[in-house]
Structure formats: structure tokens, C-alpha cells
Amino acid sequence: MSPTGEDGMTRRVEAVDWSVYLVTDSRCGEGRPLLQVVEAALRGGIGVVQYREKQAATRTMVREAEALRELCEAYGASFFVNDRIDVALAVDAHGVHLGQDDMPVPMARRLLGPERIIGVTVHNAEEIRRAQAQGADVLSIAPVFATSTKPDHQTPLGIQGLRKLAGLCERPVVAIAGITLENAADVIRAGVDGVCVVSAVMAAPDPETAARELRRRVEEARAARMG
Ligand SMILES: Cc1ncc(COP(=O)(O)OP(=O)(O)O)c(N)n1
Ligand SMILES: Cc1ncsc1CCOP(=O)(O)O
Ligand SMILES: [Mg+2]
């Protein structure tokens, strides 16, 4: 399959730009419409958007997810749905993101087919080994730092813990939790391909500038890492 589908969206995992990965949370947008905040973030250079909505009715979710998928398409970004394989399929998302309590990867693969991307949250070496063996396409190491955005998170790994786990990953790998403009470069230097953020962009007074500045710091840190 070509990196870009007929609709202009990037479909192959190798072609996804993981640098700055926005996970949405409608409670973090300071009352602003979700689409408005995400569009500003896309203008600032977000490469991946994940629709993460825990409470809404399914009808609301498919409406919002479809609108976000179209927006991502317009900006050449990739679009994922958190947890909900049915919603991902209904709106033709690039893929889904699954945690350790969500649909197991082999079952998700049967439902999604070979071409949609499956991302998996990993907290330790055993989860990395299993996710890779089961064919996850991208790993998200969590939690790097403490965050109030997901209060039920596990004990934070810190930069040293992140570095150890990132070294075990043979697939694209990102990191999440408590990532801000101030620590994004340290996270990239620990060996991941991108940073995932909720509040650093969703709650920023100016989400476009926040996304642009995050991207600049990620690119600088990656360039320095490569020497
Ligand atoms: C990119 C990314 N990484 C981690 C998570 C968390 O997934 P999960 O552990 O299933 O928790 P919920 O987000 O479902 O509460 C994520 N969503 N995205
Ligand atoms: C979805 C998710 N999974 C682990 S932490 C987290 C939330 C991260 O939010 P923030 O970027 O605001 O710390
Ligand atoms: Mg989940």
C-alpha cells in the first residue's frame, strides 16, 4: 500500500510523523470547541491526533471522530481513535490506541485488518515484549511523569526508566504523561520518536504556538541525538 491513501492521509506506519502526537480531552480545552483547538494544533505542526473520549454517547463520538478525521486529512496528519475499534472503523481512522485493559492486540488485528495501525500502551519490559510479539505497530511508554490528566496512571518511570524501556523497542515508540515544553527535549533524548501530550496543547492559551514550539524542541533534540 502506498504511504498516502487516495484520501491524502498517510497510511503506512513508516510514513507517520510521530514527532508531536496530540491526544484529545474535551475537558482540557478551557471551554473552547474541540475542533477549534485541534485545528490550531494542526496548524502548529502536530503529526498525529488521537480522539480520546471516555464519556460521550457513541453518536457523539462518531460525529466528532469523523470531523476530526476530515480535519487531519486536510492537514496531512494521521488520525487514531482511543479504545474504540468500532468508532475507528466507522470513521475510517488510520488506527486505534489500546491499553493493557483494552481489546487484546490479536483480536484487534482480526477486526481491523492488516493495514490499520495499532498502538499499544506499555509500562514495562514484559509488556513491550508481548506487544511486539503480537504485532503492535507503535508503542507508547507510560507514564513518564505524574499527570492529573489521567489520575489512575502507574508509578512514573522518569527519564532513566524511559531510556531503559525505549532501548527495548524495535518499533516506532512514543512517550506520554506530564510532557511539557520544558521536558520534551529530555524525553526525546531518552530515545523515543515522539512526544504525546494532552494538556500541554489542549489547555494552552494558544494551542498553535504550543504545538509549534513543542515541535521545534523535539526536532532540535532529535537532531542533537543523531549527532
Ligand atoms: C499515545 C497514548 N499512550 C497511552 C495512552 C493510554 O492508553 P490506556 O492505558 O488504554 O488508557 P486510556 O487512554 O484508555 O485511559 C493513550 N491513550 N495514548
Ligand atoms: C492518556 C494518558 N495515558 C497515560 S498518561 C495520559 C494523559 C497524559 O496527559 P498530559 O499530557 O496532560 O500529562
Ligand atoms: Mg485505553
From TrEMBL:
<feature type="binding site">
    <location>
        <begin position="50"/>
        <end position="54"/>
    </location>
    <ligand>
        <name>4-amino-2-methyl-5-(diphosphooxymethyl)pyrimidine</name>
    </ligand>
</feature>
<feature type="binding site">
    <location>
        <begin position="147"/>
        <end position="149"/>
    </location>
    <ligand>
        <name>2-[(2R,5Z)-2-carboxy-4-methylthiazol-5(2H)-ylidene]ethyl phosphate</name>
    </ligand>
</feature>
<dbReference type="Pfam" id="PF02581">
    <property type="entry name" value="TMP-TENI"/>
</dbReference>
<keyword id="KW-0784">Thiamine biosynthesis</keyword>
<comment type="similarity">
    <text>Belongs to the thiamine-phosphate synthase family.</text>
</comment>
<comment type="function">
    <text>Condenses 4-methyl-5-(beta-hydroxyethyl)thiazole monophosphate (THZ-P) and 2-methyl-4-amino-5-hydroxymethyl pyrimidine pyrophosphate (HMP-PP) to form thiamine monophosphate (TMP).</text>
</comment>
<dbReference type="GO" id="GO:0000287">
    <property type="term" value="F:magnesium ion binding"/>
</dbReference>
<feature type="binding site">
    <location>
        <position position="82"/>
    </location>
    <ligand>
        <name>4-amino-2-methyl-5-(diphosphooxymethyl)pyrimidine</name>
    </ligand>
</feature>
<feature type="binding site">
    <location>
        <position position="102"/>
    </location>
    <ligand>
        <name>Mg(2+)</name>
    </ligand>
</feature>
<feature type="binding site">
    <location>
        <position position="150"/>
    </location>
    <ligand>
        <name>4-amino-2-methyl-5-(diphosphooxymethyl)pyrimidine</name>
    </ligand>
</feature>
<dbReference type="GO" id="GO:0005737">
    <property type="term" value="C:cytoplasm"/>
</dbReference>
<keyword id="KW-0460">Magnesium</keyword>
<feature type="binding site">
    <location>
        <position position="121"/>
    </location>
    <ligand>
        <name>4-amino-2-methyl-5-(diphosphooxymethyl)pyrimidine</name>
    </ligand>
</feature>
<feature type="binding site">
    <location>
        <position position="83"/>
    </location>
    <ligand>
        <name>Mg(2+)</name>
    </ligand>
</feature>
<dbReference type="GO" id="GO:0009228">
    <property type="term" value="P:thiamine biosynthetic process"/>
</dbReference>
<dbReference type="InterPro" id="IPR013785">
    <property type="entry name" value="Aldolase_TIM"/>
</dbReference>
<feature type="domain" description="Thiamine phosphate synthase/TenI">
    <location>
        <begin position="20"/>
        <end position="201"/>
    </location>
</feature>
<feature type="binding site">
    <location>
        <position position="178"/>
    </location>
    <ligand>
        <name>2-[(2R,5Z)-2-carboxy-4-methylthiazol-5(2H)-ylidene]ethyl phosphate</name>
    </ligand>
</feature>
<dbReference type="InterPro" id="IPR022998">
    <property type="entry name" value="ThiamineP_synth_TenI"/>
</dbReference>
<dbReference type="GO" id="GO:0009229">
    <property type="term" value="P:thiamine diphosphate biosynthetic process"/>
</dbReference>
<dbReference type="InterPro" id="IPR036206">
    <property type="entry name" value="ThiamineP_synth_sf"/>
</dbReference>
<keyword id="KW-0479">Metal-binding</keyword>
<keyword id="KW-0808">Transferase</keyword>
<dbReference type="GO" id="GO:0004789">
    <property type="term" value="F:thiamine-phosphate diphosphorylase activity"/>
</dbReference>
<dbReference type="InterPro" id="IPR034291">
    <property type="entry name" value="TMP_synthase"/>
</dbReference>
<feature type="binding site">
    <location>
        <begin position="198"/>
        <end position="199"/>
    </location>
    <ligand>
        <name>2-[(2R,5Z)-2-carboxy-4-methylthiazol-5(2H)-ylidene]ethyl phosphate</name>
    </ligand>
</feature>
<protein>
    <recommendedName>
        <fullName>Thiamine-phosphate synthase</fullName>
        <ecNumber>2.5.1.3</ecNumber>
    </recommendedName>
</protein>
<comment type="pathway">
    <text>Cofactor biosynthesis; thiamine diphosphate biosynthesis; thiamine phosphate from 4-amino-2-methyl-5-diphosphomethylpyrimidine and 4-methyl-5-(2-phosphoethyl)-thiazole: step 1/1.</text>
</comment>
